[in-house]
Amino acid sequence: MDRSWVRGKLFSPEYMDGVKQFMSFVKGKFSDNVEILCPCSRCLNQKYLAQALVKKHILMNGMDNSYTRWIHHGEDLNVEVIEHVPAGIVHCSHNWSTDGIGVTEEDSNDIDPLEAFLGDLHTAAAQEDREVGENEDGDTESCEQDTFFRIAMKEAKCMLYPGCTKFSRFLFVVKLLHMKSLYRISNSAFTAILKLLAEAFPEYNTLPKSYNEAKSILKELGLGYESIHVCQNNCVLFRNEFAKFDNCPICSLSRWKDPERKKIPVKVLRHFPLVPRLKRMFATKEASEQAQWHKLKRQPSEKEMSHPADGEAWQDFDREYPDFADDARNLRLGLATDGFNPFSEKNTKYSMWPVFVVPYNLPPWACMQESNFMMALLIPGPTCPGKDFDLFLEPLIDDLLELWNGVRTYDAITRKTFKLRAAVLWCIHDYPALSTLSGRTTKGYFACIHCDKHPLSYGLRSKIGYVGQFHQTTGSCSYPVYVEKKLREDEYKDKELDAVDLFKMCHYSNKKKGYTPTVQSAITQMENQLAAPTEDGQPKSATQVVSAVLHQNTKTNHFLRNVGNQVAKRRTTLQNVQAELEVEKRTNSELQLIVKNQREEMDGLKNQVQGTEQARIKDQEENRKKQAELEKKIELLLSQNGQS
Q1: Which of 148, 172, 254, 304 has its CA 20 to 30 A from that of 123?
Q2: Residues contacting residue 217 through CB under 8 Å, at least 6 positions apart
């Protein structure tokens, strides 16, 4: 059986057919409700999952490229399988996938992905050289500085050793580092391997002598990170004007653990430059096409949200900045952060905070791939940065400001440079991290972001409670501003709105295109009370109706006060007292009538029960008589049989 599809390209016809073949094989061995081992490249036959979820994992994560004999799913060991990749199928394991590096099926059959990547870089470097030569300003500084493309081509042309044509130094080192990460080789073991290879290779080889030297090659290409020293009290980052300071200009503490030797800093922030990585997205044709997928290939649907571009935030941003939206290559980014303990259970008090940047221009199946997550910052511990989080974000903010203004980037599709811009549309985090990232409080009496400065929170012994069904809306101090803005619109400009109309206007949900069930129930109660007739024939006040309904549903409400409407207090007069007494008398008489009717019904039910019980006793007596007669007849028959 042909199993070469497990090393094929994801979502290719051959791969999709192979997944169907595997699931058909599984259904022949197991019933539909039986969980099976998941053979995707992440689970590796270590987890039992539902069959539908296993299929989804294989489609999204790829099949384990070493699992060609399906022994964990009931296949015999003696079955012959074809494991080689025939011509016409791109040979790429899911670790060395061609996704995102510009190698298509039309471009190559047996070409190494890195070689194809370097071919695109060669074209980019040649184009950049031409543009620099045509530069009329004669900017000598930009000509003297090596760009990413020139450095990449310089490394690609560096021979591993004299006469080696199969590997360049760059290609060989990248594959070694990939193996180190894949098989979790320690730094010291990797250095020992490099030394052994350097001795085994011919003389004058260019192989790096240590792991740090190998990393420096990647750092020159913009694949490394920048170490930024931080004050022990998180006062400043020792960069820009403070780069050469040995002591903090605010608290005067030393940046070094040993102030005399000045070798080991107290705290280090790792900054992974964002601009070079975003520019590399357009260095290959396939990656550049994916970055424009949201505008060129996406099929929008009115009732479905299949991509972030279908969301209101994306569309509102496009309306606000049409010049940004005109170029499909401009990137919309998401910012994600959360704390984690790198030492697992060994030290539960330690916390580090990575900050990831996610490009949302990519297709939906690529947006959430881990390979497309870009770590921008690694904030050191041992505690949460808290209110000093903005200090650690300074390098990333500088990158984002540079990207907002635009950076010159080469596009492999057009083979020309353009001005790449990027903007952050979303921040992804849990509720406690909202306080860390934005600075507003998310605990205590002001934890609700909707109630804001007018919370419906109360101290309840050992905790704080939020009382009332409308605490997320009726307590908001933003109502006066919202009402004033709404009254300027043409829809409400010439209308006189009462308290009920204001309540409807303020609680209408644009997201749901209507009211929530709780709000709709309150509106129904208000309308019913307004429509109910009164004793004196005078219509009820809308303000009093709203106040009464909100008082039933909330312990304390500020809606009427916030919209500038107050309930008029009734004066206590003799007529009012007499009217209230008449209402109470009428209510008491009605209650007495209801109680009398209920008693009569209970008496009727009691008589029915007694009659039923008597009938049951009578039936039991008749059954006993019949049983006794039957037993006599049986005894008579038995005695006659015995005599005969």
Answers
A1: 172
A2: 155, 169, 170, 173, 208
